[in-house]
Amino acid sequence: MTGPPTPPPSSAVEIEDAARTVLPPPNAGAPPADAPAPAPAIAQPISEDAQPPIFNQIPQNTMYELLFRSISELARSGSLRELVDVAERGDLTGDFQTDPSRLLLIAPLVLAYMILDELPPARHALTRLPESLASFPLSHGLFQLLASTTERKYSDIYRQADELRQFVLQPAFGNAELSQILAGMITSFITAFRKKTFDLLSRAYTSIPLPLAQWYLGYPAEQVEEFLNVALSHHWRYDEQSKILTPSVQPKSSARNFTYAQSTLNALNLVADSVATLES
C-alpha cells in the first residue's frame, strides 16, 4: 500500500522550512500517491499577436543593440554574473527606454536572474518596463513564468517554460540570434530549477511516491523511464513493487554549479564603450 511522503524525523530548521515553504504539501494540486501522474496541460500560445520587431529594421545603434553583442557572448559562455552586471548598467544608462530594442537586455537579464534563483531582482527588471514594452508577448511570457516560479506552481513552471521556448524559436519571432540565446537560457533555467528541486526533495523526504516525484520535477507519465534514469543519477533508490523512491541526501555544495567571471570593471568598460560609440 502506497502512503503519502514521509518527512524525515529531523530537527534541522532549514529542512523543515524547505518542506513547509518551498515544497507545497502533496494535496496542494499534486496527484494522489496512488494515482497516475496527470497528463500535461495542453499548451496555449502565449499570444495570438505577432511579436513586434525588437531590432530596429533600420539600425539605430541604440545602447541596447550595441550591448546585445556582449550579452550574447556572455550568455553563450555561461558568464551569468557578468551578463547581469552588463545588462543592469546598460539598462540604467540607456536613453531610449521605450524602444523595443531594450528587450535585448531585459529578456536575457530576467532569465539570468532566474537561472541564479534570484527572483526579486528578476521581477524588478520586468516591472521597470513601460506599458508599451510590458505588453509584448515576450514580456508577457516572462511575467507568467516568473510568477509561477515565485509561487512554486510546479506543473505550470514546466509548461510555461516550454511554451516560451517554443514561442521564441518560431520564425515569426524575428531575430535568430536572440531566439537562440533565449531558448538556451530557458533550457538552462529548467535544468537549474530541477536540480534545486531534486536537492530540496532529497532533504525534505525520506520516501516519495513515483507520481508525486514526477509532478514536482515536471516529468509526465509517459516519461517515467527517463525520469527514473535521472533519479538514479541523483543516487535515489527505486522500489518497483511499491513504486516508492528513496532520495539520497547529497553533501551541500558551496556554489550553484556555475562559474562566473565577476568583473564589474569589465561591465563598466562595455557600457562606457557603448556610450562613446553613441556619442561619436
Question: Can you characterise this structure?
Answer:
- The protein is an all-alpha fold.
- The chain has a domain of 157 residues.
- The chain is built from twelve helices and three strands.
- Strands 1-3-2 form a three-stranded antiparallel beta sheet.
- α2 runs antiparallel to α3.
- The longest helix is centred in the C-terminal third of the chain and has 29 residues.
- The N and C termini lie far apart (74 Å).
- The C terminus is likely disordered.
- InterPro entries: CSN8_PSD8_EIF3K.
- This is CSN8/PSMD8/EIF3K domain-containing protein.
Short description:
With 280 residues, the protein is an all-alpha fold. Helix content is 56%, strand content 3%. Helix 4 runs parallel beside helix 7.
Number of DSSP strands? Answer: 3
Structural class: mainly alpha
The residue-averaged pLDDT reads 79
Spell the H/E element sequence. Answer: HHHHHHHHHEHHEEH
> What's the story with the biggest beta sheet?
3 strands, antiparallel
Oligomeric assembly: single chain
Note the gap between the termini: 74 Å
Radius of gyration, taken over Cα atoms and rounded to an integer in Å? 21 Å
- Helix fraction, binned, reads 55-70%
Write the layout of secondary structure elements.
Elements: H1 13-22, H2 63-77, H3 80-93, H4 103-115, H5 119-127, H6 131-134, H7 137-150, H8 154-169, H9 176-204, E1 208-209, H10 210-217, H11 224-233, E2 237-239, E3 244-246, H12 264-279
Antiparallel strand pairs: 1-3, 2-3
Helix pairs in contact: 1-9, 2-3, 2-4, 2-12, 3-4, 3-12, 4-5, 4-7, 4-9, 5-7, 7-8, 8-9
